[in-house]
């Protein structure tokens, strides 16, 4: 899934975030980005469908006139 995908650097400065898939009951199959050293700090993980304000579950439609 990462082919051609830009993965941001973690805010801790340890490098590019890694792409993971949740295995919990409540979020099973949901993709997220996490810290490359798996540390628990502010912004150490973010849901892919919410990254950058994009919400794939509730698409935003803009009408351009």
Summarize the structure.
With 65 residues, this protein is mainly β.
Task: Describe the 3D structure.
Keywords: Metal-binding, Zinc, Zinc-finger. InterPro entries: Znf_GRF. GO terms for molecular function: zinc ion binding. This is GRF-type domain-containing protein. It comes from Nelumbo nucifera (Sacred lotus). This protein has 65 residues and is an all-beta fold. The chain has a domain of 37 residues. Helix content is 0%, strand content 17%. The chain contains no helices and 3 strands. It has a 3-stranded antiparallel beta sheet, with no helix packed on it.
Helix content: under 10%
DSSP summary, beta strand count? 3
Q: Rg, please? A: 14 Å
Low-confidence stretches: 53-60
How widely separated are the two ends? 35 Å
> Which structural category do the helix and sheet elements fall into?
mainly beta
Overall shape: it is globular
Count of helix runs: 0
- H/E topology pattern: EEE
Order of neighbouring strands in the sheet with most strands? 1-2-3
In terms of DSSP E residues, the strand content is 15-25%
Whole-number average pLDDT? 75
Main sheet record = 3 strands, antiparallel
InterPro entries: Znf_GRF
Organism: Nelumbo nucifera (Sacred lotus)
Protein name: GRF-type domain-containing protein
Keywords: Metal-binding, Zinc, Zinc-finger
């Amino acid at each position: 899934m990462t082919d051609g995908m830009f993965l941001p650097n973690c805010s801790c400065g340890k490098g590019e975030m890694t792409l993971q898939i949740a295995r919990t009951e409540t979020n099973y199959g949901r993709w997220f980005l996490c810290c490359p050293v798996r540390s628990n700090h502010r912004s150490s993980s973010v849901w892919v469908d919410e990254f950058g304000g994009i919400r794939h579950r509730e698409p935003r439609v803009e009408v351009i006139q």
